[in-house]
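Good morning,

Attaching, inline, the backbone tokens for the sequence recovery test we're adding to the shared suite. The designed sequence is right after.
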């Protein structure tokens, strides 16, 4: 396996949906990925936030080996180990009441939209069908998810999309109040926007969204697919604001690389869903759920939330030093280990990302001008310093 041979085969046989980086990978360990020729990369992207514990974590690997030899899949027609236990753990950690498991963040968001519509119908509010989402949002690639995604390049090739979606200016509570009306069934937010440029929502905006939905009987949907499960230094990003959403979606780090998404719901929302209304073939299988339980064990048992808070504060302070030192930088921002350095020009951001890859460091660029950092929770200060020093040289 060489980079050239992979590129040739993919160009011939794959639908061209990805503009891949010029690197081939064969294995990983800790915060590092390795290529077939011995190349080593310090990974500050973590599979776009998925590999929160790093690669080949021994506790996770042990569970995969054990459970894959017992039962990988049996379908949701049967009771299988771990699914109810995982639901119980997630509900206890979040303060919500029930869980639905699927395969990905997009599927979780799609389910949450369906549950919101079903709840309104169950309450005999059949005219309450409209969703309010935010400018800069990204919720996934399926038709409902992309309809609530704001960025034009994700929407326009697939129009017409699901109707009944309006967009509110980012973090603008006054605009939210103007656009809110009695036909809104849900307000849709990422507690920290990821693809939109690593932008945290303010406490004031989130509390206004909670007030409006609570007052009218609409729902507050929090997309925590990227910012949830420890990424911001709390188990859920909405916990920084003292909120309890009606629906929460999870995925990326949940099963440490195995496909698993989840929707968490309050009892009153879950009551609108009956057998046969929604489902999944693969979601919540015993292998993925067993791994997810071990991920939660590691996050809690190894004190990783505190480590994320400490490492994130240090990393953000170093990024702010870069922002002060380089005129090409507009802003450093983020929460926990979900951080960004926004440059003033897209070409500069593209060049910096390329230069870091050449130096053996993986980051990515989002929203054209934003360098996004999603390192594993086990990242060290020495590794943070290495990345900051390389950024300094590249800038």
């Amino acid at each position: 396996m060489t980079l050239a041979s992979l590129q040739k085969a993919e160009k011939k046989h794959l639908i061209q949906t990805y503009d891949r980086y010029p690197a081939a990978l064969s294995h990983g360990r800790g915060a590092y990925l390795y290529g077939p020729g011995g190349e080593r990369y310090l990974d500050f992207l973590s599979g776009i936030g998925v590999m929160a514990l790093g690669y080949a974590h021994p506790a996770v690997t042990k569970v995969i080996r054990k459970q894959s030899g017992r039962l990988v899949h049996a379908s949701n027609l049967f009771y299988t180990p771990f699914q109810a236990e995982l639901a119980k753990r997630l509900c206890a950690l979040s303060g919500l009441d029930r869980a639905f498991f699927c395969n990905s963040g997009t599927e979780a968001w799609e389910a949450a939209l369906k549950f919101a519509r079903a709840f309104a119908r169950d309450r005999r509010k059949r005219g309450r069908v409209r969703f309010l989402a935010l400018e800069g949002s990204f919720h996934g690639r399926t038709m409902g998810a992309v309809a609530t995604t704001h960025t034009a390049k994700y929407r326009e090739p697939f129009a017409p999309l699901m109707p009944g979606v309006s967009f509110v200016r980012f973090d603008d509570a006054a605009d939210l109040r103007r656009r809110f009306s009695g036909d809104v069934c849900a307000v849709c937010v990422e507690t920290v926007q990821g693809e939109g440029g690593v932008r945290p929502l303010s406490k004031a905006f989130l509390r206004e969204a909670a007030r409006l939905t609570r007052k009218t009987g609409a729902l507050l949907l929090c997309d925590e697919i990227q910012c949830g499960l420890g990424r911001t230094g709390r188990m859920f990003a909405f916990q920084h604001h003292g909120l309890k959403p009606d629906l929460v979606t999870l995925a990326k780090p949940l099963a440490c690389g195995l496909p698993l998404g989840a929707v968490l719901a309050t009892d009153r929302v879950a009551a609108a869903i009956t057998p046969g209304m929604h489902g999944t073939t693969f979601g919540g299988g015993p292998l993925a759920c067993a791994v997810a339980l071990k991920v939660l064990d590691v996050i809690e048992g190894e004190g990783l939330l505190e480590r994320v808070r400490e490492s994130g504060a240090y990393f953000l302070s170093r990024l702010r030093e870069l922002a002060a030192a380089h005129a090409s930088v507009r802003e450093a921002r983020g929460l926990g280990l979900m951080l960004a350095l926004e440059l003033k020009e897209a070409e500069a951001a593209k060049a910096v990302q390329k230069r870091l890859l050449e130096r053996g460091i993986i980051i990515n660029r989002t929203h054209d001008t934003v360098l996004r950092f999603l390192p594993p929770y086990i990242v060290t200060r020495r590794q943070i310093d290495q990345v900051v020093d390389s950024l300094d040289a590249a800038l």
